[in-house]
Specification:
Radius of gyration: 20 Å
Distance between the termini: 21 Å
Number of strands: 13
Largest sheet: 8 strands, mixed
Shape: globular
Mean pLDDT: 88
């Protein structure tokens, strides 16, 4: 069996240590930790024990995400990605904000920061999944319009896409500009991935809203629609479950053949769980 760690991030490290000590794989809600250092500690705990650790970036298993990768690979924006922009105004679909007291998502000791920790990490992971890792990252954060909370409500991010082996199309060197304004009264959620041959425009936080394919002049030449998944978390959980079952069967087969099964087992090459050639879920690193 495996353990699903679905508590606020401030408790993840303590629980993760107990899960790893029990020899159980873990599926952990995002963000993995409240900081880079904390997330690294959690990853190292499982790595040292050779126990799988997965992060609940559920959008990697959406039909819509697979279609973005397919479009990029097919040349919808040209032979490479050159620019990525994202703007989020409003709550970013964050849950549990309607409360008489300050919710844990807005308490740094529990969440690590403001809503960008809960919402922004999804978008950043999608960029990684589509195009590759963010490098040369800079930016700023501030509390511009939320005097009742002690965390930032506004974040700007500047970065480039780094080298990777999993990008759907060559994206290394692409410029990335993101802005989250959670205090804004109007709502906006817009991701644009551009290249020399056109662009893809879509809501960044949706599992089912349409993808617009634009030509180099910005004209919409195709709109692709999707049905909302019945249970948004289920597709990735099923992929992870299948992977763990296959891993157990392989370990039992090896042991049955009289070979050393290697104890807890190792991590997958590249730390990714895939299906039919698609990189879908990730083991945390």
């Amino acid at each position: 069996g495996a353990v699903y760690i679905a508590t606020p991030p401030g408790s993840h490290l303590e629980i993760a240590r107990k899960v790893a000590a029990a020899g159980k794989p873990a599926y952990i809600e995002k963000p993995v930790g409240r900081s880079h250092a904390e997330a690294t500690q959690i990853a190292e705990v499982f790595s040292q024990c050779s126990i799988p650790l997965f992060t609940a970036y559920t959008s990697r298993a959406f039909e819509r995400s697979a279609e973005v990768r397919r479009l990029l690979a097919a040349g919808a924006v040209g032979d490479r990605v050159t620019n990525i922009t994202y703007v989020c105004h409003g709550s970013g679909l964050a849950r549990g904000l309607q409360s008489d007291s300050i919710p844990w998502r807005l308490q740094a000791e529990h969440s690590g920061g403001g809503l960008v920790m809960d919402v922004g990490c999804h978008l950043i992971d999608r960029l990684d999944f589509f195009c590759g890792p963010l490098v040369n990252v800079s930016g700023n954060a501030a509390n511009k319009g939320s005097p009742h909370q002690q965390v930032e409500d506004y974040v700007q991010l500047h970065a480039q896409i780094g080298a990777s082996s999993w990008a759907a199309v060559c994206s290394e060197g692409a410029q990335v500009e993101c802005c989250w304004d959670f205090s804004a009264s109007e709502s906006k959620d817009e991701l644009v991935i551009s290249g020399p041959g056109g662009a893809l425009k879509m809501a960044g936080m949706s599992s089912s809203l349409p993808i617009s394919v634009l030509d180099p002049t910005g004209k919409v030449i195709q709109e692709i629609k999707f049905e909302a998944p019945e249970h948004a978390a289920l597709p990735l959980i099923q992929i992870v479950t299948n992977h763990l079952r296959e891993r157990t069967i392989a370990s039992q087969s090896t042991a049955g053949a009289g070979e050393d099964s290697g104890g807890g087992g190792g991590r997958d090459p590249g730390g990714r769980v895939g299906g039919e050639g698609e990189e879908v879920g990730t083991e945390s690193e």
